[in-house]
Amino acid sequence: MSPSLLDLETQLAFYKAYHNNTGNVLIHSIFVPTILFTSMRILNDVKIWNGYTLTHLLALSFGLFYILLRVGTGILASLILALTCKFLNDGTIKMTQTTAWILFVISWIFQFIGHGVFEKRKPALLDNLVQSLVLAPYFILYELLFILGFMPELKKNLQARVDKELDRMRASK
């Protein structure tokens, strides 16, 4: 599957093909947000210009990409990223760098366990590092929205595409 950069369904189907097992999705649902948050905490100490940090740059970049994929959910994701920046900057969220790094490393370990134990497939990041890192938090937001009953047609379309891709992969083995 070669994802078109700004096609939401193609992007989500690419990522979902690597995250189709319930156990792996659950692990990712916990640890992808943890990785995003701890990354934002770690990068928040790196000042780049006039009080702005690498966290602001990350949030802006991710948010713009998400909005280009789909405006409504992109704005929701951007709001979550912006609030995280605000709470990191105003001291509402307090976490040491050491704690952030420990949680970051533990989260990555669990991600790989999820792929090895449940998915029995290499992680998406081994096929497309940047896409996987940027898309993972957005994918988890969509998984939450699907659980809440939003966008059932998109969920159905994604699963059909993933099933077809997984069948193709099994046939080629």
From TrEMBL:
Any one Gene Ontology cellular component term annotated for this protein: membrane
**Pfam families recorded for this chain?**
Mpo1-like
> Which InterPro entries does this entry report, sorted A to Z?
Mpo1-like
Task: Please give the start and end residues of each transmembrane region.
Answer: 25-43, 63-88, 100-118, 130-151
GO annotation, biological process: sphingoid catabolic process
Keywords assigned by UniProt? Answer: Membrane, Transmembrane, Transmembrane helix
Full protein name: KLLA0A05005p
- According to the record, the signal peptide region is none
